[in-house]
UniProtKB/TrEMBL annotation:
Full protein name: RING-type E3 ubiquitin transferase
Biological or metabolic pathway of the protein: Protein modification; protein ubiquitination
ARM repeats by residue range: 314-351
Keyword Transferase: yes
Molecular-function GO terms, alphabetical: ubiquitin protein ligase activity
Species this chain originates from: Gossypium tomentosum (Hawaiian cotton)
SMART domains: ARM, Ubox
A GO BP annotation: protein ubiquitination
SUPFAM superfamilies in UniProt: ARM repeat, RING/U-box
Enzyme Commission code: 2.3.2.27
Function: Functions as an E3 ubiquitin ligase.
Pfam families according to UniProt: Arm, U-box
Length: 548
């Protein structure tokens, strides 16, 4: 091999032998996701890379030191440029070890991991690594510098292709007869079984806002006449990788149009080559290029089979950067892309670990209605898992969301997130501390000023808070919630009536439990026992002291 310092090999994942393991033994084997794809052992210090995959930190360090990029069993090539500690999976691994009476993962030895890596490299390459390749120190340093600081190509934008399209908004609670248009949340979040839109607000199947420079298929007869999707992909990749900015814009507009109108093309065009070309354009300093690149990604992400592929291709950190510092339209599409990717259960933890929660919280106060809409629904779907709920509570999301509810900013969608947070102990405690019961009851008391969806979500949030909380009844009593809930039970929608009835029943049951408590003082007196000696309550100590 040449001395370019970059080689690839395929790692074999942890192998389970069905022939040598009994059912009882296989049951005690660690889950596949707990094992480092490189070393094959339980991860001691797991870190997550931009693609969402987790590795042991020492394994990545060995790969960096050896200058190799592995090709994993699924054909992907991980990007080790950025790593983030994966505390969620580390905690899960330790919990699994406790539950199965297994030893906690031990710190891996560098030399042992290095031997594992070298054993998987072809013999000729391995000998070159151990003896040292024929490359001067100055060249090695130069290669390392180029790898750490790749050249950045800034292009020149010619025309504005995608003007702002804030005027056409999609309703957050719109439904459709197609199963692709809506999702009903059931087991993951029993408190909020709502049909929600699964299409980002920035997506419009009927048309999009392109300027007069829009390029149609008729202007590119070569693409129109080619029936093979691979030829179509090659043509697009050539345009996207061109050094000419006008060619890049042309390719992006064409890709955006094809993936908007041809659903079957979304799967065939979501290839490694095209995603690699698209990834470099999302980092463009020119808003037109960046906006159309992210918009194309939104279209590709609409297909369920593409969602995990896109996240594992390292797009989430790029979308986060665009949401933080992109143009207004780029932020709309970035929020839409994160929302679309968050619909896939396998992506939820990775998106949270990679740091999307804080920017999405900030985007809730964006001036763009579309950015607010998609950010809220992204947070709703991300908060369906426990690890992201805890992260949001630690980020102070409860106070932020409750202040938005009081001000009426996107109250209906924000309440969806609060319903999910109320389903975990940390979120419930934070909401009760922040006077959420009084705020929600106050919203219901002003029912003529809020829409039907907001009223329903207020009742759903109160229902979530009422479960398993001894504090709820006292706070609800202070807020005079009973009279408001009875009014909802009489005049509200069917969903609100059901929730209000169940909350009132919970409060009634607790009142009966309190009434059924034994009057120990009366019982003791009737039995002829000493009231002073056996008195129950806060005066016990004083009463017992008086006997001496």
């Amino acid at each position: 091999m040449g001395g370019n310092g970059k080689h690839r090999w395929i790692f074999s994942f942890y192998q389970r032998s069905n022939s040598s393991s009994s059912p009882k033994q296989s049951k005690n084997l660690p889950p596949h996701e707990f094992l480092c794809p490189i070393s094959g052992s339980l991860m001691f210090d797991p870190v997550v890379i931009p693609s969402g995959q987790s590795f042991d930190r020492i394994s990545i360090q060995v790969c960096r030191d050896l200058g190799f990029t592995p090709t994993l069993q699924d054909g992907s090539t991980p990007d080790f440029s950025t790593i983030i500690p994966n505390l969620a999976i580390k905690t899960t691994i330790l919990a699994w070890c406790r539950d199965h009476h297994a030893q906690d993962p031990a710190p891996p030895d560098y030399s042992s991991v290095e031997k594992i890596v070298l054993s998987k490299i072809p013999e000729q390459t391995s000998s070159r690594l151990t003896s040292g390749p024929d490359i001067r120190v100055s060249e090695r340093e130069l290669l390392k510098a180029v790898a750490e600081n790749p050249p950045v190509l800034f292009s020149h934008a010619v025309t504005e292709i995608g003007p702002s399209v804030n005027s056409r908004l999609l309703c957050s609670t719109s439904t459709s007869s197609s199963s692709d248009e809506s999702v009903i949340v059931t087991a993951s979040s029993p408190y909020t079984p709502l049909p929600l839109s699964t299409r980002p607000a920035c997506f419009s199947a009927s048309g999009s806002s392109f300027s007069s420079t829009e390029i149609t298929l008729s202007e590119t007869p070569n693409l129109k006449s080619q029936s093979s999707s691979s030829l179509e992909e090659q043509e697009l990749v050539l345009k996207l990788k061109s050094s000419d900015i006008f060619e890049q814009e042309t390719g992006l507009v064409l890709l955006r149009k094809i993936t908007r109108t041809k659903e079957e093309a979304r799967v065939s065009l979501c290839s490694t080559r095209l995603l690699s070309a698209l990834r470099s354009l999302i980092t463009s300093r020119y808003s037109v290029v960046q906006t159309n690149a992210i918009a194309s990604l939104v279209n590709l992400s609409l297909e369920k089979s593409n969602k995990v592929v896109i996240v594992r291709s390292g797009f989430v950190p790029l979308l986060i950067d665009a949401l933080k510092a992109g143009s207004s339209e780029a932020q709309e599409h970035a929020a839409g892309a994160l929302f679309s990717l968050a619909l896939e259960d396998d992506n939820k933890m990775a998106i949270g670990v990679l740091g999307a929660l804080q920017p999405l919280l900030h985007a809730l106060r964006s001036e763009s209605e579309r950015t607010q809409h998609d950010s809220a629904l992204a947070l709703y779907h991300l908060s369906l898992i426990q690890s992201n709920r805890v992260k949001l509570v630690k980020l102070g999301a409860v106070l932020t969301l409750l202040s938005m509810v009081k001000s009426g900013d996107s109250a209906s969608r924000v309440l969806l997130v609060l319903c999910n947070l109320a389903a975990c102990p940390e979120g419930k405690s934070a909401m009760l501390d922040a006077n959420a019961v009084a705020i929600l009851v106050g919203m219901l008391r002003e029912s003529e000023l809020v829409c039907k969806a907001t009223r329903e979500n207020c009742v759903a949030a109160l229902f979530a808070l009422s479960h398993g909380s001894m504090r709820f009844k006292g706070l609800a009593k202070e807020a005079r919630a009973v009279e408001v809930l009875r009014e909802v039970e009489e005049r509200g929608s069917e969903r609100a009536k059901d929730k209000a009835k169940r909350i009132l029943q919970i409060m009634k049951d607790r009142k009966e439990d309190e009434d059924d408590e034994i009057d120990w003082e009366a019982a003791l007196e009737s039995g002829g026992l000493s009231r002073t000696r056996y008195r129950v309550g806060k005066d016990d100590f004083a009463a017992n002291s008086s006997d001496f």
